[in-house]
Design brief:
The complex is a heterodimer.
Chain A lengths: L8 H9 L10 H9 L3 H13 L3 E8 L7 E7 L6 H9 L4 E7 L5 E7 L2 H15 L3 E4 L1 E6 L7
Antiparallel strand pairs in A: 2-4, 2-5, 3-4
Helix pairs in contact in A: 2-3
Chain B lengths: L5 H10 L9 H9 L3 H13 L3 E8 L8 E7 L6 H9 L4 E7 L10 E7 L2 H14 L7 E12 L6 H7 L1
Antiparallel strand pairs in B: 2-4, 2-5, 3-4
Helix pairs in contact in B: 1-6, 2-3
Classes of the chains: A alpha+beta, B alpha+beta.
């Protein structure tokens, strides 16, 4: 394991500045670097390092799943403590599970399912229930008020 | 639902792994998919304009950035009040996500969900207290669920259908 590098002011500007959007043009990193007063290769090196250090996941899209005919839902299970890790493994083995968090509640495992077809949501839930023998509580979105989800470094 | 071309599905599948960190990333993706750089750019712009891609940008691992206090705050709100309240909650800068969801009574009576991500638990709790006080929510059934461990954080993969078709 290599030491993580402490963030400097430029790293923070990169992280804070690029969550909202990224140019779709021939040389996007050069365009962004120019706006930030950096050289393109400096920006790419920093992004590489931030990714290696695990601070960045990726440059990528947030989809509107429903517009593609897909579906997202939030679901929860009440998992006995002594089975928790094993059940987490069973749940995460499904490619449709995007996020999975332990939370403080009797319903203590919370995960997001993302599927290409709405009908798959119920199928995956049925599979997880069959594999774990535990009830899955499905709490699909009825309405979205906000999806900002940005983090200041 | 919007129908998109197989090539668009392949692009979305490739993008789930992240844009390459090279000078001409769209050209590189195009080379992998048999598309020109111009074609990749045109298709991505179209996907953004049509709202299929709602945001294209840097996705951080918030836990590693120090956001370790991750609270899902939930309320049981009368159905005819939930829309107005959701809009009010969403206006607070520290609310990172806000949804109305299906209840699962009796185990889960809550229908309004707001996420607050912060660096310290005490601070997040004070922010949630501020919501309850300023929006007059104290009388509602309410619960705060902090996350204690992350077991998975990956990209939702919606483009794989096209990839499977092409493969």
């Amino acid at each position: 394991m290599t030491e993580k590098h402490p963030l400097d002011e430029i790293d923070r500007r990169i992280i804070n500045g690029l969550q909202g959007g990224f140019p779709i043009c021939s040389s996007p990193y050069a365009a962004v670097a120019h706006d930030m007063g950096l050289a393109e290769d400096d920006l790419l090196r920093r992004l590489q390092r931030l990714r290696t250090d695990g601070l960045l996941s990726r440059f990528g899209p947030m989809y509107h799943a429903e517009k593609l005919g897909g579906a997202l839902t939030l679901a929860a299970i009440s998992v006995p403590e002594d089975r928790y890790d094993a059940v987490a493994e069973q749940v995460n083995a499904h490619a449709e599970v995007a996020h999975n968090y332990a939370r403080e509640h009797q319903l203590n495992m919370w995960f997001v399912l993302a599927t290409e077809q709405l009908s798959r949501i119920d199928e995956v839930i049925a599979e997880i229930e069959a594999e774990t023998g535990l009830k899955v509580y499905n709490m699909p979105k009825k309405e979205e008020f906000f999806i900002g989800l940005r983090f200041e470094a | 639902m919007i129908e998109i071309a197989d090539k668009d599905h392949q692009l979305l599948a490739r993008l789930a792994d992240g844009l390459p960190l090279v000078s001409r990333p769209y050209a590189e993706m195009g080379a992998e998919l048999g598309l020109s750089e111009d074609d990749v750019i045109a298709r991505l712009r179209h996907l953004v304009d049509s709202g299929i891609i709602r945001r294209f940008g840097l996705i951080v691992r918030h836990h590693e950035l120090g956001y370790r206090a991750n609270a899902m705050s939930v309320w049981d709100v009368p159905d005819d009040e939930v829309d107005a309240l959701g809009a009010d909650l969403a206006a607070y800068p520290f609310v990172t996500l806000c949804y109305r969801r299906r209840r699962q009574p009796p185990r889960w009576p809550y229908n309004l969900f707001a996420m607050v991500h912060g660096k310290e638990r005490a601070h997040v709790l004070s922010q949630i207290a501020q919501l309850n006080e300023q929006l007059g929510l104290e009388h509602l059934r309410h619960h705060v669920l902090f996350s204690t461990k992350r077991y998975k954080q990956s990209a939702a993969r919606f483009g794989d259908r096209g990839l499977a078709k092409a493969g």
